[in-house]
Sequence to fold (902 residues):
Amino acid sequence: MSLAGRTLAAGGVVLDLGGTASAGAGALADLALTHLAVGQGLATKPADLVDAAVAALGDRPLSGLVLHDLVDRSTDPETLLSLLQSLSVSHGGVPLILTVRNVTHYDVAVKALFGAWDVTDQGLLDAGCPASYGIDRLSALTASTGWTPLSEADYTRFASDQAFPAAHVALQRDTTLADYLRPLRERAGPGAEATHFVRAFLPRAGAPAASSPGAAPFLTVLARTQGRRLESLQEVLLCLLAQTDPDFEVLLLLHDVTPDGAGHIRYLVDVMPEEFRERVRLVNVNGGGRCRPLNAGLAEARGDYLAVLDDDDLVFAHWVETFHSLARRHSGRVLRAGVSEQHVAEGVLLGRAGHAPESRTETPYPLQFDLFEHIHENRTPPCGIGLPRRAFRDAAVSWDDKLPVLEDWDVLLQLAMLCGVSNSEEVTSIYRRWNVGDSSTTVHGEDEWQLARQAVITRLDRHASLIPRGGLSALRALVEQAAQAEAVAKLRARQLTLLDADLREVARGREEQLDAARGLHVELAGRDTHIRQLTAHIHHLDAVLTREREERSAEQAQPVTARGREEEFEAVRQEFRSSTSWKITAPLRTVVNLTRRR
Amino acid sequence: MTDTTAGLRVRVQSVLYGNSWESTRRFTASLERALAESVRQGVIGEASVIFGDSSGLPCLHPSKRDEVEGMLGTTVTSFDYDFFGANLGSAAGHNRLMATSDAELLLIINPDTVAGPTLLSELLLPLSEPLVGAVEARQLPLEHPKPYDHRTGETPWVTTACTLFRRRVVDEVGMFDADSFFLYCDDVDYSWRIRLSGHKLVFQPAARVFHDKRVDGGGHMRVGDTEVYYSAEAALMMMHKYSRPDLVERTLEGYLLAEEDRPLEAKAAHAFLARRSAGTLPAPIDPDHTVSEFVDGHYAVHRF
Fold:
């Protein structure tokens, strides 16, 4: 009804083919429309049904046509829709609203994956419906019978009548498998939760657009340029001209290029050999970020695979050939070949702006693809990757223009986890790093890079992901390595703690020894002083004794007093010589005497 | 005073050796465009092309020769094909082709290349200076690391992978030394002889040619056994011819000592010694080392 209200002009009749008289009559009346049911319950040929409808309509104005659950019950929907298209055109091009059961609802699709096809009396897998429709088939049918889409109001239910058995691992809401499959189905296209497509159409004027002629090439090269590096763009085109495998087309994506610049680029293509020129298309892209030209190229591409080349990448002669060989071996996978790197600097060469390599080619990127390594960080420049174009559609993948950098990593991870990777160790391209001038590493700060990394991983982590064959072993090995590294780190920490304690102990001991040494030093200094004092006293006594002897000689006449004095003095002298101080200083006196003799 | 090339004739010569038809077709188509563009710009008068063929059997079937001629069309005044019937090597092969024309400009180019559309018009620019004897193109994707002056383009030697020569300089200097060089270094020798005659050599980075070379997993250019042998043989010859007997002896000793690990170099050493015994080595030149330079196995100080 909402669709009727949006698309049907008021005041006329709505022919409801196959409907009942009561169905929707009241609601249509509210829209100033007259409901007229025709052919309900009749097993009629389309021509008879349409004739009956015309007869029932008579002279009244026609506002619209309704086919409710009739397309999938009809054995000849093409004729039915073609006749209705003519009827619509004869009444000024009135809209057609149809409802069709959708057998690509998640519930049906996932059960079919498990081998179940549960036909019921009514519902999505109605036993009475000879035909089954998804959006592709419906679109093809309406397009081929002269209808063009106008509006839609699909009827959706998370759990359809096919949501049984309730405990089915893929039907339950919270299992890992459902977390992986349901978003996959949702991204693949409309109808994941639509039980019925409810669509309005208008009759199309003229024949439908013809599809693109010619066989699709193996590869579409998306070469984006802002027209600032025409010198290196020439080199990119020359490398493509030299490819050993010519099964590719080139989309030159001119992103915000000035008219002058576009003219120069046009010239670069026009001077190429004809058979190469014919495979090159120029696509103008305006506004947006780095991803807009890539998504524009995706929409225009015809190749089975896509490869992105920036206007400063170089490729060897076997770049396309290597990708092609990988695709033949592993159809549908992401293709990966080796990439070398070379440092280049801009400069003035022979009076003109140009560039020159400053290093030889090196190979810093791993020659083998490892998914977990790439989850940690991107280890493959875009020129080393070929992407299956169909997978973009099937998984609703596109380059995210909200990412200022790492848009290639984002797409690579999404598709690598879905499709797997076919790898060649053959080095087929040169990723050039500019030493002077702008590149994404110089234009964007580390914060932007970090935020972009986080955004990519966060998006991937919103739902369950696939681990490729051998991935569990690789993951287990990584966890084991991490556990071992942690154990080693703990052991080292313990050892460091013990070592630290030992060092502190040694330091303490050293302090104590230093203190003891200081104490001894003080004591020795004190004893030195004492020894000097004693030595001085001894010299004094010796002088006194010598004087006394001399005086005694002079006092021969007074023997009693002198003898008495000498006896008294000798007694003092003996007492002194038997003292401890005299004994301790014996070695010192020896030294002093020896010194005097010299 | 400057020279003009307008109105001059260009002779393009290339020596095939087992090249596939697809490769030859790509080369021819690109060559036609480069010649057509320079004619359109009026920087040359007319062009002619000759392919020599050193293969055991002709690379080009008569129908393919017709196809090449058809591809070159009216862009060239003539297309010739000369099947040598023997592998003459690079020097002798080019000598034989050089003798077939007196065009004022001579473009020597490898058949495993693809010419950029502006190749010839860019090569012609430095020839406005009369002293310039030859102009070399930039090879992609692997540019040669030999040095050149960023202001003047002057370079110590040019490679015949793609170089445009002034014919009067060729006449003055003479042919390639095919007696001394079979493959490799015939161009280095020729370059130094041009310099000894007082002319300059220029590297023109804006003149682009794609040369199908590839790298290994370490990023080093892949080199086959033929290149290893003939480069070693040529290296000894260069050292001898350019008056470096010290280097000759040192290199011979090195090659012979490492015979087990490097048999090809050792074979080249034996071949040199045999020629020395037979007295068939060329007379040494450049005794004062005016132009010759030997640095770490190269003939100039490499940029990287």
Remarks:
- Residues 21-40 of chain B form the longest helix (20 residues).
